[in-house]
Amino acid sequence: MSLDIKNVGMVYETESGHIQALDQVNLQIRDGEFICVVGPSGCGKSTLLNIIAGLEHATDGEVLLDGQRITAPGPDRAVMFQEAALYPWMRAVENVEFGMKAAGVPPQERHQRAMKYLDLVRLKSFAQAYPHELSGGMRQRVALARALTLDSKVLLMDEPFAALDSQTRNILQLELQHIWMETKKTIFFVTHNVEEAVMLADRVIVFSAHPGHVKKVIKIELARPRQRGSIDLTFYVKSVMKDLAEEVEKVAKKEYGDNWSFEDDTVLYNPDSDMGAYL
Amino acid sequence: MKTILFYIILIAIWELIYKLGVGVLHWWKSYAFPSPLSVFQTLVSLGQGGSLELAVLVSMKRMVIGYLLSAVLGVTLGLLVSQMQHFGSQFNAFILGLQSLPSICWLPFAVLWFGINESSVLFVTTIGSTFAISLAVISGIKNINPLYIHAAKTMGVQGIMLYRDVMIPAALPNLVTGLKQGWSFAWRALMAGEMMSSTHGLGVMLMQGRDFGDISQVVAMMIIIIVIGLAVDRLLFGRLERKVWRRWGLNQH
Ligand SMILES: Nc1ncnc2c1ncn2[C@@H]1O[C@H](COP(=O)(O)OP(=O)(O)O)[C@@H](O)[C@H]1O
Ligand SMILES: [Mg+2]
After folding, report:
1. B154: which chain A residues are within 8 Å (Cβ-Cβ)?
2. Contact (CB<8Å) A87/B166
3. Residue A194 near residue A212, CB atoms below 8 Å
4. What is the whole-number distance in angstroms between the Cα of residue A159 and the centre of ligand 2?
5. Complex ipTM value
């Protein structure tokens, strides 16, 4: 597996004019790598992820998966969204099976595999439940199981834990680390939470805003599983925060006017702060 | 329990109005305003004579055929329009226009095409609910959470499977509501059609009441028409609707 993002640019044409969401984004992602893209909200993270997914088309540049240009969505790139996107009329297990159904896996086998992945996300006993009977965290775990069954080359995750309460998020971050170590999947993970990015990633890609652009790439060389609040982790979080502070301020100024600013310290003292979430 | 009490009170008020309006104040002649008792007696005698059962059967048969036809046509038309790349919104507005036309206005057409017979009544019934159902399908499809479709596409779901397994189920709550609404439109259309151009059925019996100057029969038929309409709406469609909405995790109903 190799994922090559080459000079990707994206301009949205809206009634109020052009919006340059991405400009000259270049990234190479290796097999089995865990990449986290972090940046203030509105900086184009989702746009980039959707382009890789094939749900949107770059207006400039291209994305190559194993040398093949991406033009449409497909099961070789599983996607997890901020909302679980489970089908409410299907039971949990049917939701997990659905992707395999599309791939033509026979019923017996897909049921077995679905149960295996539900077990992996520790939801086997909820296989028969409907999505609205599950909590937000459980729904995301079902969505993760569904994404894993596709056996995709890369797993794209767009702020999958952002809507969850912090305890649930911590648990899922740990689970995701374990699952990644077990499955050795290539993961492209978008977040605005710096600690989450540092905790999960091999490399953190810091995005700048207006237009979205790779500002800095930071290698995280820490053993796994990583624990919240460890000293090494905090060190990395602070350093990423520093890179991001400027960007967050830039976005804030754009949205609240030029005289808006905050003390540098407020960012540094709050490593769990969601960059941009309070904007 | 409350329901029963409600109807007892309603009938009591009716009786009171009858006593006052016909007996004491002479607002109405007795042939222009029936008492609850005379309506009840009419119902019993029509029932014993078998003509009521026959009329109910005839009307229900028309209803089932006409309605099923309209469901098939309405869903098909709705799906077609929501598929359209061009002129979709124009078609939508056009269907909205047709929907606002009372379906009895189609009767002259129907009679010219089919003659005064079963088909023309069926035609009026069918056309009475087809457009309502189409509109429900169109808005149901339009309001599908785009995330459902995005997720499906990223899983490699496309073509017929996308329609069958994602879009139609996603639109189902709206569709069921539309089918329910369509039923009551069809029911009204059928009664109008029967009153204007038919020889059997509940609408015909209502008109017979008028022709024979039997106001009790008119009211008796009105009650039967209301009861059937309400029963099907509540027991069949209401239940189905609640079940679907609940299963889909929606709480608006
Ligand atoms: N469909 C769209 N039409 C117009 N502008 C869009 C669209 N999607 C995103 N944008 C704009 O592109 C920029 C990046 O958005 P997005 O990728 O969603 O940011 P992020 O995911 O980092 O919060 C934003 O300024 C947003 O307003
Ligand atoms: Mg986003």
Report:
1. 53-55, 73-75, 77-79
2. yes
3. no
4. 7
5. 0.85
- Which CATH homologous superfamily contains domain A2-76+152-278? P-loop containing nucleotide triphosphate hydrolases (3.40.50.300)
Nearest protein Cα to ligand 1, atom 24: A42
Q: Would you write out chain A's pLDDT as a tens digit for each of its 279 residues?
A: 999 999 999 999 999 999 999 999 999 999 999 999 999 888 999 999 999 999 999 999 999 999 999 999 999 999 999 999 999 999 999 999 999 999 999 999 999 999 999 999 999 999 999 999 999 999 999 999 999 999 899 999 999 999 999 999 999 999 999 999 999 999 999 999 999 999 999 999 999 988 899 999 999 999 988 888 889 899 999 999 988 887 777 777 777 776 666 554 444 444 455 555 444
Please say whether the beta carbons of A7 and A25 come within 8 A.
yes
Give just the sign of the alpha carbon dihedral A189, A194, A195, A199: positive
CA of B145 to the centre of ligand 2 (A): 17
Let me know: does A195 contact A228? Beta carbons within 8 Å.
yes
Domain locations in chain A as residue ranges: 2-76+152-278, 85-151
The Cα–Cα gap between B103 and B98 comes to: 9
Number of separate domains in chain B: 2
CB contact under 8 A, A74 and B169: no
Chain B residues lying within 8 Å of A132, measured CB to CB: 248-249
Q: Are strands A3-14 and A17-29 parallel, antiparallel or unpaired?
A: antiparallel
